[in-house]
Amino acid sequence: QQIIACAQEGIVVYGGDLKYKVWNPYMEQLAGLPAAEVLRKDPQEVFPFLRENGVLRALERTLAGETHSVEFPFHIDRTDANGWSADTSGPLRNLRGEVVGVIGIVRDITARKRAEEALRQREEYFRALIENASDIISVLAPDGTIRYESPSVERVLGYRPDELFGRDCFALIHPEDVSRIQAVF
Hints:
By secondary structure, the chain is of the alpha+beta class. The protein has nine helices and seven strands; from the N terminus they run H-E-E-H-H-H-H-E-E-E-H-E-E-H-H-H. The strands form two sheets. The protein has a five-stranded antiparallel sheet. A two-stranded antiparallel ribbon has the order 6-7.
């Protein structure tokens, strides 16, 4: 009990009826609900969004004895608990090996989700910059093999970007300039 109470991850135990049996202090903080408001209730009664996010179906499959552990990100749509969590669950077995419930571990992944979204937005921004630049932007492998050409290469050199992919960049340079350019490459 002390380990469950002190865990820095949510620990949830569901009975054979899939009603909450254990709701540790971390879950109270994460979801903004004390255990007294959750215990003995059906998950969908407390968090209706769990069905649409596939969490209830995973709990049902786990209760049926499937041995898997799957993460389900979901948004806690409450003013006092706004974020994302990942729920990993597995069967809870008695001493005879029978499945008598489900045990779930819940992690707060809000920071990761925000970082992923920020990265996606930055990638989108830089992709738009590169693809709309009037100058040619190239990405080359250390040996001079072309890995990327911006769309402007077609306007400037007459090649489609896909025509140049994998080619030696030095083959496109005037022979008198190759040694000078290779020196700085």
